[in-house]
Amino acid sequence: MHERMIRNDVRDWDDVRYFLAVYEAGSFTKAAGILKSDQSTVGRRVQALEHRLGAKLFDRHGRGMRPTPAARGLAEYARTMREAVDAIGRRFGGIDGELTGIVRISVTEGLATGWLTPRLAGLQLSHPGILIEIVIGNELADLSTREADIAIRLVRPTDPKLVAQNVGRMRFGFFTVESYIAIFGIPTTIEQLYNHRLIDHTGLVGTTFDPWREIVARHDAVMYRTNSSASYQWAILAGFGIGLFPTYTPKLFPELIRVPIEIDIENEIWLVSHEETNHVARTRVVLDYVRDLFKKDAVEWFS
After folding, report:
1. How far apart are CA 289 and CA 125, in angstroms?
2. Is the same domain home to 178 and 253?
3. Is the pLDDT of residue 198 over 60?
4. For 65-80, what is the mean pLDDT?
5. pLDDT band at 9 (very low <50, low <70, confident <90, very high)
6. Which among 35, 61, 92 is the end of a domain?
7. In the chain, how many domains are there?
8. Are the CB atoms for 192 and 259 separated by under 8 Å?
9. pTM (two decimals)
10. At residue 229, does pLDDT exceed 80?
11. What residues make up the domain containing 299?
12. With contact defined as beta carbons under 8 Å apart, do 175 and 258 qualify?
């Protein structure tokens, strides 16, 4: 009895963390990528947990791992452990008030590259102990698991634990360049737009972009498509066609010419943080700094 109690004693959260990564990713290889580890370490950690529990957790299945009934039962408790560990990290990670460490900002590529990054140098000069890590993506990062500490998004989050502040508005319009106009001319109505070449950004999703998605779906001459804002920008500069851009874009690329067709697409911009990390000194400093940047540029960029 005493030997079995010791064998089933689970004291190392790291082993459980490795198990959960494999359970959710479906393979040692994918779990290693998520954990920034290697496949052999993941396998060793899972085996150590299996030994202590006295239960097999995975069976090999093709190139992946199939969880056993024991693993499915353990996963529920493992997720509860992860939530508790994450909560401790959010609550006490930085409680000493020191302005040092990493602050991750999740933001769309266009805002990060064209607007935010050039304006962060002042923050770094004032607080050299803070490392700003920009996480590019169109989906809202999971702030509860510290995928990011702050997010800038075009959709208001619904999680009640997230604190969301409306910091501006992003309006959109059609743009092209002189080299395209010299060959194909410029449309002045939506009907004429169907006789022109378009470029498409697949990251423009959400109900506010329905008018654009409808145009693209019905259009016979979409010449270029990408999920990258940078590639999208270079495609229009190269003269591929007409694209949909935020109305502030010519501030970054004066070569852009506004196409005289109105389209009713605009998004509110939300600055998002987690209620449990708002008290962390370094996060608070960065959050306040970014909010002030939006206030400063509200009229010229985001109104």
Report:
1. 12
2. yes
3. yes
4. 87
5. low
6. 92
7. 2
8. no
9. 0.68
10. yes
11. 99-303
12. yes
